[in-house]
């Protein structure tokens, strides 16, 4: 396009800037909803984290007291296991007792700290044997005395807890103040499949679970070098009898993965619905606005055709406006997606699905996909407007030019007649 065409196009843009700004804000809002929905999905995936993070990651075999419901992955065993029954057995390199007690963790202000992703907050024993210990310290140290606990990273972030802070634990039979001695992760994650963990000394957990000395709800077992986990499981199941349930740790982790995948499918459906609404609203608003702009600028588009612009060039002008608008809206929408994600997280947290302790996602998926979606949405929405602009006839410029002076002279003529 030549210089006169560019001047007309620039003036046309300047006269319609108010509507273009409104379109920009509408597109930015829809992209922000797309980006916020994606942020929520990625942060939910991190918070659930049971698919690839498990407290049983270093164990080979789990010996659980009594009968265990295979459908209830996170249910506590209803029987008891003596630790000394396993520590000296052939094929066992290490063993550690385990028990879980559902607790409510609260800030010092009394406000309860919600567990990650519809999970629970569980009191569990700190495992001191490095062959079985899955907990990696991010800060502080392991709990050593009664009244000290280590917490997983999600709980620390959700409760705004640091090493040395105190919090309240509501146990089944008592409420007590404890001090945070350490913050841990499990395989790099901030929580496990069951939810959040509060780790205390084994003696503290035994008392909370009302277990006799030396007995546990379950025992983690590490197989000796060269002993397959399945072989050890079979030997222990045969020797210990029906009073316990013996499973490989790998089978338990697989069951946790299946449960987490079901939660992920539900999350994906919700997020897909939000993103679909955002895309539909964005395309509808942008398409409607660009259509109105074309109708308002019929005369100027016709002038462009009259002085030599081809229909393809006119359509390209509309698409270029949409591209610039989409690029600006994409950058702003991605940035606005972070507070939108926080709003979505707060709304879901009210219903018990809290992922607030997860990290904001800044990878290429979280940033690139919403930006690309914004450009595609604006380009797709402007397609019909560009097609309509191509069909504007240069003759319409002459018709508008003839009609416009009559409209402007009419008030003057009437004034002269009255005078």
SSE order, as H and E? HHEEHEEEEEHEEEHEEHEHHHHH
> Regions with pLDDT < 50 over 5+ consecutive residues?
400-419
Helix content: 40-55%
Beta-strand residue percentage: 15-25%
Largest sheet composition? 6 strands, mixed, barrel
Strand order of the largest sheet: 4-5-10-7-9-8
Sum up the overall morphology in one term.
elongated
Secondary structure tally, helices: 11
Q: pLDDT average, as an integer?
A: 79
- Terminal residue distance: 49 Å
Rg calc: 33 Å
Tally of individual domains:
2
Query: How many E strands?
Result: 13
Content-based structural category: alpha+beta
Describe the structure.
The chain is α+β, with helices and mostly antiparallel strands. It has two domains: 208 residues, no CATH class; 195 residues, no CATH class. It has eleven helices and 13 strands. α2 runs antiparallel to α10 and α8 packs across α11. The longest helix has 48 residues. The C terminus is likely disordered.
Attribute tags:
4-stranded antiparallel β-sheet; 6-stranded mixed β-barrel; 419 residues; disordered C terminus; alpha+beta; 2 domains; elongated
Task: Describe, in short, the structure shown.
The chain is of the alpha+beta class and 419 residues long. Helices cover 53% and strands 17% of the residues.
């Amino acid at each position: 396009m030549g210089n006169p065409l560019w001047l007309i196009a620039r003036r046309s843009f300047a006269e319609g800037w108010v509507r273009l700004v409104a379109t920009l804000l509408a597109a930015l809002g829809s992209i922000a909803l797309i980006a916020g929905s994606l942020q929520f999905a990625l942060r939910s995936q991190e918070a659930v984290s049971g698919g690839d993070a498990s407290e049983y990651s270093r164990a080979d075999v789990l010996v659980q007291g009594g009968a265990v419901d295979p459908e209830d992955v996170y249910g506590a065993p209803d029987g008891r296991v003596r630790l000394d029954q396993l520590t000296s057995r052939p094929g066992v390199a290490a063993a550690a007792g385990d028990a879980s007690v559902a607790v409510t963790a609260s800030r010092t202000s009394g406000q309860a700290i919600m567990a990650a992703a519809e999970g629970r907050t569980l009191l569990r024993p700190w495992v001191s044997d490095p062959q079985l210990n899955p907990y990696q310290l991010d800060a502080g140290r392991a709990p050593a005395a009664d009244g000290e606990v280590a917490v997983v990273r999600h709980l620390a972030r959700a409760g705004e807890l640091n090493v040395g802070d105190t919090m309240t634990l509501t146990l089944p039979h008592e409420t007590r103040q404890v001090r945070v001695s350490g913050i841990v992760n499990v395989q790099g994650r901030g929580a496990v499949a069951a939810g959040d963990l509060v780790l205390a000394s084994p003696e503290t957990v035994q008392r909370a679970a009302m277990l006799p000395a030396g007995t546990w709800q379950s025992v983690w077992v590490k197989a000796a070098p060269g002993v397959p986990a399945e072989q050890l499981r079979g030997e222990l199941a045969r020797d210990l009898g029906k009073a316990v349930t013996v499973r490989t740790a790998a089978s338990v982790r697989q069951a946790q993965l299946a449960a987490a995948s079901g939660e992920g499918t539900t999350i994906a459906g919700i997020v897909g619905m939000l993103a679909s609404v955002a895309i539909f609203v964005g395309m509808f608003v942008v398409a409607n606005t660009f259509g109105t702009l074309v109708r308002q600028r019929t005369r100027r588009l016709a002038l462009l055709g009259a002085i030599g612009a081809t229909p393809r060039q006119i359509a390209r002008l509309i698409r270029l406006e949409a591209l610039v608008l989409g690029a600006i809206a994409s950058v702003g929408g991605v940035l606005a997606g972070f507070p939108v994600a926080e709003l979505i997280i707060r709304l879901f947290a009210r219903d018990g699905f809290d992922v607030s302790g997860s990290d904001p996602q800044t990878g290429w998926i979280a940033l690139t996909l919403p930006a690309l979606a914004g450009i595609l949405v604006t380009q797709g929405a402007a397609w019909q407007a560009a097609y309509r602009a191509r069909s504007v006839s240069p003759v319409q410029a002459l018709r508008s030019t003839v009609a416009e002076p009559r409209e402007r002279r009419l008030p003057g003529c009437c004034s002269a007649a009255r005078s």
